[in-house]
Amino acid sequence: MADAVTNDNAEDVKPSPWFYAWTKEFQLGEGSELLSQRWQAISSFADTAEGADVEALVRLAIGSRHAPSSDWLTSLEESFREEYPAFTVSSNARELQVLSACCLIQISQDPENGAANLAALASATTSVAGQRKFSLPGDLPQVANEALLSLSLSVARRPKVGAGSQFKQLFEAAVQQARAQPDVATLIEAMVLAGKTVTSAVNKTQLTLQALAQRLDQQDEELQMLWWLIGEHSEDLACSFGDVPDAARPLVLAKELADHTVLPPGPPTVRALLSRAKLARRGKVALVDAIAAAPLEWLKSHVAPEGASPVTQPLHFAVLRQLETGTGKAWVDGWAATTDLPGNLSLPPLILAELFYRERLLTRLLG
Question: Which candidate, 75, 193, 265, 270, has a CA 20 to 30 Å from the CA of 124?
């Protein structure tokens, strides 16, 4: 996949190679005006997308029965038609599905886009480790996982922290320069120039402070995760990792690791960290058993988010349904019907934990 291209002037932006591959079924022709119009439409929409937009785009991309609201679809149509005048939602259902997926890719591949983490996480969690199958020209979950890795590596990269500027030296130099001027006009010109120099120094110092703050966040995140792993102690349940019920362990440990994640979408080593917490790669645990094994009060006070999406947060949605119906399995059939997932959904503990971890971060970003 090529990196997404961003440009303030949409007219000057050429479609990325991956976009032609994803829209090939519409026979637009590589380099054609029709292709360019669609690219500009999704690029413009992606530039201003927010959390609610990402959720709606995911629902369209996977063909979910939970369609976005008519008001949102009207807004999307109006946005697309600014660059692609012939587009209408009512007569372009398949194209809308594909373009929605392309919007998600464009957003998630642009690290400067404020919704990049949201788009990548939502596109990944909605597949539920391949349990949902999408009718798309490409593998959206795989693209999302690649974007998550790229975003994680970008966040983990240490920023360069400069030595900073010496304000006193700059000020003294400005004063000496001003004193040497022969007349008022030249003095004013010298002071303006000195002011610009000091302003530039202040701006550079602000960038240095921002880089320093990011480095401190990185170090704090790594340190907290390290102590959590070394201690092998569940902070929520006040017991050792080994004393957490086996079936509930993926949910409990994933939630606690997410609590220690300062910089979404988390480090690129999340799966390795969960593996070091003794979550197995083999064998399977049923979601219904994992929820049943978790302490009810823990689910109520530490896990359940209001309004969890059955599309992008199906595991958290399961917790909500269980809390609504009470202990037992009465919630399972309704949950399965709503999410289009098997009621006996079972996954390896490590995979279940990674999914729950990603949903936790998604919940935080949406909140």
Answer: 75
